[in-house]
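Our consortium's second objective concerns turning raw sequence data into structural hypotheses that experimental partners can test. To show how far this objective has progressed, the report includes one record in full. It was chosen at random from the queue rather than selected for favorable results. The single chain below, 415 residues long, was entered without modification.
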Amino acid sequence: MNLTQGLNDLVAVALVAVLAPIIVAVLPGPRVPQVVIFLFGGVLIGPHVLGLAETSGIQLLANIGLGFLFLLAGYELDPALLRQQAGKLAIVGWLISAVIAVGVAGSLTAGGYIRDYVPVGLALTTTALGTLLPILRDNDMLGGRFGRDVFAAGAVGELFPILIIAVFLTRRGHFIALASVALVGVLAVALAAVPWLTGHRAVQRIVQEGQDETAQITLRGAMLLLFVLLSVASRFGLDVVLGALLAGMVLRGWARRSNMDITSLEHKFDAVGYGLFIPIFFISSGMSLDLKAIARDPLRMLIFLALLLIVRGLPSLLVYRRVLPVRQRVEMTFITATTLPLLIALVDIGQQDGVMLPATAAALVGAGVLSVLVYPLIAVTLHRSAPLTPPVVGIPTAEPVTGTSAPTDNPGQHD
């Protein structure tokens, strides 16, 4: 791959990234997520259609984009949330999904429909929190009790599969893989203590003075942290998304312990991530989508799309029956069934093993693309159809003027 070809690939990818928000703005009907335009734009410029670009020339930048996606998800995740009711319910929901996935994947394998049992089954339990965040944030769906449940369900739907990928789907022994995960976790904890160890006033002054000037010290430090953990995770044979998720969680700890301008730091992450690296990842994913394989067996893709909803989505109707109204449980069903980045990672693992059928790989990625296109749109449409009252979404209201406390079934008050 020569320099000229690599630059040509970047030009084609940058063109798609620039045109995506314009296309979203001019399309009639409900607003389509930019992610979908990135994917379809990647398909168009990729080797299977126009052949204007190849993934090999932008692979490193695409991997950084994947890392940034999970860094932002880890930054948004408060580990304390997993110890609260929202986290416990999310864990129960994921475990139910895992049990269903075992039965589904086993049945498909016994019927000769798939050959790579573990990656396919695990793919059906994932949730694309990083992909969903900008969509849900733009539609004000992250507030109150519902927002906490979404964060917890999305975090569990990413964190648990990532840990399983790192331990059980590595080419090393399970014990060595588990030890590697522990070492990477210890490194993350050690890095999280850096602000406390460097709490000298002179250091804090340098950080405060350089975070918004040409030095951009906080952004550079965040990028260094991301690259370090990505490199360490890759060296240990772990999936890079584990290092990226940990990097985001470490950055959250840094922000708490240091005198950083949190809002300014988040804006910088959004600018660098969504402005550059994340679009490259999604466009690259579209470039690798084999449309011919999907066209030969479109039913396989639709079956996987339905299985995502059944395996990962439907348990939400049961798990949240006592804390969320029916309509929000339905919204949660479609939100948790949305997946793509981890699904792509699992497809790559299956293909590297040489076991996953090409038709299965293409159908899984196609189902992930459709889930990003269809399921969040349904959830957003339901959310906009009839706004819920403040008590329902977890916002306390004033007591009646008479002074007597009116009975309430507000689920947000007993978290």
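The partners drew two points from this record. The two ends are 55 Å apart (CA to CA). The chain is about 70% helix and 0% strand. Both points have been shared with the crystallography group to help prioritize constructs.
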